[in-house]
Write a structure and sequence with these properties.
With 288 residues, this protein is mainly alpha-helical. It has a single domain (3-279), classed as ABC transporter involved in vitamin B12 uptake, BtuC, CATH 1.10.3470. The protein has 11 helices and 2 strands, in the order H-H-H-H-E-E-H-H-H-H-H-H-H. The chain has a two-stranded antiparallel ribbon.
């Protein structure tokens, strides 16, 4: 293995890891505020991919430019899901919550199959097609733009949480719901906001992936397992942990594929996941 191949593989791992991190941040946001695991999270990513695809196919709008619109659309979808489904099961047993999000997953997937058929689609002739040389490392331009876009979206979420009053209210709700209520914070508005941001993060990841990853109704299943691994590694409810763990998983996945073969790359990730569960079950940045 040459140094060039190693550096290119590491760079590719970091770039795809940034996408994993963005998906996981949306998932951990919902769990951190509401203690609900959203099994339909991958379907939000799928909707983001299809939104970008149809905006490109019908109006020739490149996903790079429609990213803000896709984020807004999925933010609205997330809030709608909360108000129509999740709000009704907040105080229900955990099993009911699991079945509700599982049902939503199959519903969204089924609707996508009905509307757009199970065919694989792709965005061709995007503005970000081709490759680019960065410091002597050859990278795919779509992957590079997707990674940078994920950094921008993640940074925006971090800024919102730590630099705005609404973000402070959201974090206060996540820390102690009863205390937040006593301070006059409307918990239902915060829950809806968390679902909106969570869906928007997944939708943004889908939009960024749409320029180089096949688009099909079951695509969410490809990423939801990795998102759960990332969230568990980083610590449930930790945005910073999800970001670090996402990059780590991306690097380990591509390095495992390089050293052991593509068929074993997921096994390497799951082995790391099991090791963390055994020796640090709260995750890398979770509280003991």
């Amino acid at each position: 293995m040459t140094t060039d191949i190693l550096l290119q593989t590491l760079a590719s791992g970091v770039l795809i890891g940034l996408i994993y991190a963005l998906v996981a941040i949306g998932l951990t946001m919902i769990f951190g505020v509401m203690d609900i695991v959203n099994f339909a999270h991958g379907e939000f990513l799928m909707l983001g991919m299809y939104a970008s695809f149809w905006l490109f196919s019908l109006y020739a709008l490149d996903p790079v430019f429609t990213l803000p619109l896709t984020v807004l659309m999925l933010f609205g979808v997330g809030m709608l899901v909360y108000k129509t489904i999740i709000r009704r099961i907040i105080d229900a047993p955990m099993l009911s919550q699991i079945f509700a999000t599982f049902g939503l997953m199959f519903l969204l997937r089924g609707v996508a199959q009905f509307l757009w058929k199970p065919d694989f689609r792709s965005i061709e002739n995007s503005l970000v097609s081709g490759g680019v040389n960065v410091l002597g490392i050859q990278l795919g331009l779509p992957q590079l733009v997707a990674g940078l876009g994920a950094v921008v979206v993640t940074g925006t979420v971090y800024w919102f949480l730590h630099r705005t009053k609404l973000g402070a209210a959201l974090e206060a709700t996540a820390a102690d719901k009863e205390a937040a209520r006593l301070m006059g914070i409307d918990s239902h508005k915060m829950f809806a906001l968390a679902w909106g941001i969570g869906a928007a993060c997944a939708g943004a990841a889908g939009a960024l992936l749409s320029t180089f990853f096949p688009i099909f109704p079951e695509v969410g299943a490809t990423f939801i397992l990795l998102a759960f691994v990332v969230v568990n590694l980083g610590g449930f409810g930790s945005v910073a942990g999800a970001f670090i763990a996402g990059i780590l998983v991306g690097v380990i996945e591509v390095m495992g594929g390089l050293l052991l073969g593509p068929q074993y790359k997921m096994a390497v990730v799951l082995a790391l996941f099991l090791a963390v569960l055994m020796f640090r079950p709260q995750g890398l940045m979770g509280k003991a």
